[in-house]
Amino acid sequence: MLAPAAEALGIRFSVLAESADAPATQVISEVTVGDYTDYATLKAFAETVDVVTFDHEHVPPEHLAALAEAGHAVRPGPQALIFAQDKIRMRTKMDELGLPNPEWATITSLADAEAFAERVGFPFVLKTPRGGYDGKGVRVVEGLAEVDEWLRETSPLLAEEKVDFTRELAVMVGRSPMGQTAVWPVVETWQQNGVCKEAIAPAPGLSAERATAITEAILTVAGALEVTGVMAMEMFETAEGFLINEFAMRPHNTGHWTQDGAVTSQFEQHLRAVLDLPLGSPAAREEVSVMVNVLGADHEDLYQPYFHVMAHDPEVKVHLYGKSVRPGRKVGHVNAYGADRDAVLARARHAADFIAGIDPDPYPDRPAPVDLDALSAEAPALEKDPR
What we know:
By secondary structure, the protein is an alpha+beta fold. The protein has three domains: 1-84, Rossmann fold; 103-161, ATP-grasp fold, A domain (Dna Ligase, domain 1); 167-356, D-amino Acid Aminotransferase, Chain A, domain 1, CATH 3.30.470.20. It has 13 helices and 17 strands. Strands 9, 10, 11, 12, 13, 14, 15, 16 and 17 form a nine-stranded antiparallel beta sheet that branches. A four-stranded antiparallel beta sheet has the order 5-8-6-7, with helices on both faces. Helix 3 (61-69) packs antiparallel against helix 4 (78-85) and helix 4 crosses helix 5. It catalyses: 5-amino-1-(5-phospho-beta-D-ribosyl)imidazole + hydrogencarbonate + ATP = 5-carboxyamino-1-(5-phospho-D-ribosyl)imidazole + ADP + phosphate + 2 H(+). One of its GO terms (cellular component) is cytosol.
């Protein structure tokens, strides 16, 4: 998804892909297939480009430091990226900056876990400090036996209180080497089995004061860590305020709505930032923008449902990733926008779920979607497929 933004800006774009059929190879002509954990491979690839950037945080930090020391422009730099790679270092830094963290502790022994349980009680959340994403590397533990089982496999672990939150929020910022910043509106997110399913921009009912506090927090982080590129900050909203959950220093799922709903998408902004170009406006184009992920189910053919979705609602925007389908895997997303939040959300949900080939409303814990047939009289674009 960075490729179209690079093409529009007239930027030569190359990719180091894990395999010859990786999604990026389908849309980028200059491809090197290799192992991103091998320093020699990284070094050879870096020699062919002016700036190196990332679409995940799993590149070994010592390799990135070596590239930077060798004079290659690595953006974000390893001194910033480490805080998205290592959750314990992230928690420590947030405490140093005085930003709202949940209660947490480093766990290397059962004694550590017992002391933490005395502070916050069971259950609490246990995480691997590195490598987890989309709910992987995260467990809710009910007792010391479960902690002991995981400690035998991995140490240290990060323990966090199980936050009593009202909803989840996210915000994204772009920052260039010259220090220019641009922040998109705060969004509300909804998780399905630990995977982001929906994002609504702006977050409904978020007070101006809390939105300002969140914006100030992400600007503090971006400046203190000298982030280059775009960064996402995910949060828990509570009755008292908000608590920081995780960071991602790259284009992020919670910012996919910006492709169609913002003046400048997160993908264009990331390229502008890492190349130290003036940043674009992060302003929303519409009153409401919604992103709903297409999560893999039993239906492998994602392309035939295009016909129904395009005919049923010509205004939704579908983005598929060229990935093989696995249950629960993010294989695409749908963006929709407009003035009526409930209607926009219903349209995006219908399209995403129809493409995935699942029941259009299998989620009893999320708000009931609006009746699309009832809306069709008011929105001609929602008329049923005449075939």
